[in-house]
Amino acid sequence: MNYYGDLYDINFFSGEFYQATIYDASVTIESPGSPIWKTWQSPNINEDVAKQLWQDFKERKGYHLRSKLLNGRISNADRLLLVLILCEDAYRNRDPNAFFLLNRILYTSNIQGLQLKSIKLHCAWFALSRLLISNNKNPLNSIVDHCLNYFDSDTLQHTKYTRENIKVETPVRKEWARQGISFDNRKSVESFYAQTYSYILELTAANHQIETLFNYTVIIDLIKRLGVKQIFDYGAGIGTFNILANWYGIEGTYADLPSETMNYARQRFSDLRIRIPMLELDPREYELPQDIDCVICTEVLEHIYEPEKLTKAIYESLRPKGLLIISESFDYIDDFCTHLPKHKGKGGKKFLEFLRQMGFVQLNVSYNIHPSVHMKA
Questions:
Q1: Which of 250, 256, 252 has its CA nearest to residue 200?
Q2: What is the pTM for the complete model shown?
Q3: Residue predicted with more confidence, 225 or 153
Q4: Contact 374, 361 (CB under 8 A)
Q5: What is the distance between the alpha carbons of residues 351 and 338, in angstroms, rounded to a whole number?
Q6: What pLDDT does 282 receive?
Q7: In what order do the strands lie in the sheet with 278-280?
Q8: The domain 204-376 is classified under which CATH number: 3.40.50.150, 3.30.300.20, 3.10.180.10, 1.10.10.10?
């Protein structure tokens, strides 16, 4: 199974197409926009009728006209499938009137999967607005443009990147293969992380998927309710979680290897006019400040040579009852080229048991999210 197989990806950050199914109706979309539909399958209406309903909705203005159209003589499955992909389109194009009408229909459908997608879209809508540097009708394009403009302004970067380069995993895999990096040469791996620009592209895609923004929102809501005032984000990447936490009044420290990725995070903070302390990490010394209230460490352990040492260092850095927000993907070796193969088999329940034996207590979270939440006993 592909690591991102179940994730909700509306902007094609991790694949070439998007598929949605409701009961006996399904659609496969090849490109965001008009859209370019690869397939529409339903026993009730054909593809031409579905596309016409799509277009009619987009052309009609006003709550009542749109509501009447969606309550026309089509099956409930066809109706809800159209509502879902129209809602995604309204999310992507920042159309609040259409988005909130459609999102309400999804939530009141009494179909559990659609209700959850409604909640995820709703959370991502507001999270995305906190990350925008400039007003743009298409906020995802705005974020992508900021990333590409950063490369254009860097005189040391001669490669011309395009929107197609901003994908989950793809740019990293290409650069890794081009340089012929081997895990047997730890120094070359560490040099790759310090010098590559590919993780800026990869993390711009991964951080702004609806699923990721939903996870961030749930975590921020939880730590606020638990009274967390400061966080320490270990392996903070391009700083997305720091930015969101800062907006909600949670101070934090950004910590990562000195790298081009860190430089881009610094530029984001500057452009958003927020001040976030930044700490350069040593790839071979797992040292953290002491008496930390909450450590964030997501999708980091599978990249380092001694994940057990880092986890122990995090435990020792936390104050009593301190929180650890952590995720790993040790076992997804085939999907991600930079995950150390020697760690395969350490993930999932085995890792949770490792945390329990170390002295962490896992906390229940209102949704089934990745990462998990733990408290130092």
A1: 256
A2: 0.92
A3: 225
A4: yes
A5: 19
A6: 96
A7: 278-280, 251-256, 230-234, 292-298, 318-327, 372-376, 360-362
A8: 3.40.50.150
